[in-house]
Amino acid sequence: MAYLDELLSRGERVVYVGRQHTFVLVSNIVAETFLIVMLIAAGIASQGAFGNRFIQGIPVGQVVFVVCGIISVMILISAFLDYLRWNNEEYVVTDQRVIQLRGIFSKSATDSSLEKITDLELRQSWLGRIFNFGDIQILTASDLGVSTMRKIAQPIDFKRAMLEAKNHQSRGYGYMDPQAVSAYMQPPPAYRGPQTDVEQTLQKLADLRDQGLLSQDEFEAKRRDLLRRI
Q1: DSSP 19-57
Q2: Between 136 and 174, whose confidence is greater?
Q3: Are residues 166 and 96 located together in one domain of the fold?
Q4: Helices 22-49 and 60-88: crossing angle, nearest 10°?
């Protein structure tokens, strides 16, 4: 999460973190393991098939076996890189945007502002329904238009978190529990204390406005109402 923390702006909060389903990683590793087994079998078979043949004094069977071994090591390295890519690819929903993080050493971060997201499309195949993964397509008002997250785990939960964050953001609350928001929205009590209490209350309202829990219009209304009670 260290790299993600560097991308977040002041006051921005992470709502949901998703990643590709383990089905993607397992299917790649199974395919690569199958290739390694086939190569090892081919190398062993070559020992018997070409054991008595030589090219410029070099046994053909041994050369084929070594070549198969080298290719198997390369595939094994590729499988490890697949794991690193899977482990470092994240789909993050914050109270302001959706961020897609990719890359092992060189990082790529693509984000879509919640206010610019116009539509969401969820696609799940029958296999995705069984193992709970799917593709989510984000449609935005920008020129690029479409952003797709493929084979994401628990896509319904991810979509729900994104829609809830967009709803809170459009209402000016940021991401906060609705009961806590309603408590903050209660009118302040009648003022009967010293002047310092007024300043503290105004500062608290200003902090709520800066955090996105109050809009500017709501802040002004609360401030005027408080000053009338002095």
Answers
A1: -B-HHHHHHHHHHHHHHHHHHHHHHHHHHHHSTT-EETT
A2: 136
A3: yes
A4: 180
Closest CA to 227 of 185, 184, 188: 188
What is the pLDDT at residue 77?
93
Domain span at residue 7 reads: 2-20+91-170
CA distance linking residue 60 with residue 70, whole number of Å: 16
- 6 and 103 co-located in one domain: yes
Rounded distance between C-alpha atoms, residue 144 and residue 134, angstroms: 22
Q: Are 116 and 58 in contact (CB under 8 A)?
A: no
Which of 23-37, 66-80, 172-186 has the weakest average pLDDT?
Answer: 172-186
Alpha helices in the chain (DSSP H): 2-7, 22-49, 60-88, 126-131, 155-170, 178-184, 195-210, 216-228
Q: How many separate domains does the chain show?
A: 3
pLDDT of residue 71 exceeding 70 = yes
Q: Distance between CA 212 and CA 206 in Å, rounded?
A: 10
The mean per-residue pLDDT over the stretch 155-180 comes to 74
Q: What sign for the dihedral angle of Cα 189, 190, 192, 197?
A: positive
Task: Name the CA dihedral angle for 198, 204, 208, 209, rounded to a multiple of 10 degrees.
Answer: 50
Query: Taking phi first (over 0 means left), then psi (-120 to 50 degrees means alpha), and beta for anything else, what does residue 114 get?
Result: alpha
Residue 34 has pLDDT above 90, yes or no: yes
